[in-house]
Amino acid sequence: MLNIDLHSHSNFSDGVLTPKLVATRAQKNGVNAWALTDHDTVHGLSSARAAALDLGMDYVSGVEISITWATQTIHIVGLQIDETETTLVQGLADTRAGRLLRAREMATQLAAVGIPDTLNGALQYVSNPESISRTHFARHLVASGICTDISSVFRNYLVKGKPGYVLHRWATLQNAITWIRNAGGIAVVAHPGRYKLDAIAFNTFLSEFKELGGSGIEVVTGSHTVDQYQQYAKVAQHYGFLASRGSDFHSPSESRVDLGALPPLPENLTPVWHDWF
Ligand code: AMP
Ligand code: MN
Ligand code: MN
Ligand code: MN
């Protein structure tokens, strides 16, 4: 049986394990085809590929791109990309450049509510400063005793309306799909159940995504409930999208779903990997 996991993170973005250790854990969990999809970077992919091949897993090169669509942050996964393609490489570099600027502002705002020096704190958890993310701030605020767990840091400090939240403009939907397609890849809407879009806005988004050349959607992901597997299976069928499956694993202690531990895709969907192996 194919156990494929097409969404996971390493310490090249906001995961905690090296690409090699993510691969090792995936293989131990029974995964036989795997993609590392770090946020806005492909720098972990060469060691991911080497580790996957060493371990006898099929390897899929991936990335998760942050975009802004109608004031919402949305994530677009690119799969089967050529990670050396120049518009992709440059687009991701530009996207990462925004991360450090945003992080400085987050730290300034947190200092203003009496939590000093969080930039240096967060940077202690980062392997590459330009990949600094809210998750690194969250780890630091837990370690320094400000909050008891990661999700309460997000709830109290890092989401819209809270003191450490900084409005940020990421790439556009068109940027992300163009970079992925230039690199020969397939664009996939990540964890659609997580976005705060009403039905009309969500349908507008999916129509634009399709119009611009997007072709896949995550149906079974660590972010979805069992009901949402069925809900997004219907969405995939309605739009004629390929369906994807991925844990969105970040860390052994923080992730709700482990690598390879999700149920299979519902019936009657075309898997995004249907012609890959
Ligand atoms: P960023 O790209 O820096 O804005 O950070 C987004 C990342 O934060 C996501 O990829 C998740 O890993 C993590 N994240 C977002 N919301 C939450 C939450 N409510 N609880 C825990 N982690 C979250
Ligand atoms: Mn993340
Ligand atoms: Mn995501
Ligand atoms: Mn992710």
Give the key terms.
single chain; 277 residues; alpha/beta; 7-stranded mixed β-sheet; 7 strands; 39% helix; binds adenosine monophosphate; binds manganese (II) ion
Descriptive notes:
- It is a single chain.
- With 277 residues, the protein is of the alpha/beta class.
- Helices cover 39% and strands 15% of the residues.
- It is built from nine helices and seven strands; from the N terminus they run E-H-E-H-E-E-H-H-H-H-H-E-H-E-H-E.
- The protein has a seven-stranded mixed beta sheet with strand order 1-2-3-4-5-6-7.
- Helix 1 packs parallel to helix 2 and helix 3 runs antiparallel to helix 7.
- The mean pLDDT is 98.
- The protein binds adenosine monophosphate and manganese (II) ion (3 copies).
- One manganese (II) ion binds next to loops.
N-to-C CA distance: 13 Å
Give the helix proportion (percent range): 25-40%
- Hetero ligands: adenosine monophosphate, manganese (II) ion
Task: Give the integer mean of the pLDDT values.
Answer: 98
Q: What low-confidence regions span 5 or more consecutive residues with pLDDT below 50?
A: none
Q: How many β-strands, per DSSP?
A: 7
The succession of helices and strands, N to C, reads: EHEHEEHHHHHEHEHE
Strand order in the largest sheet: 1-2-3-4-5-6-7
Structural class: alpha/beta
Strand portion? 5-15%
By DSSP (H or I, 4+ residues per run), the number of helices equals 9
The 3D shape can be described as globular
Largest sheet: 7 strands, mixed
Q: What's the Cα radius of gyration? A: 18 Å
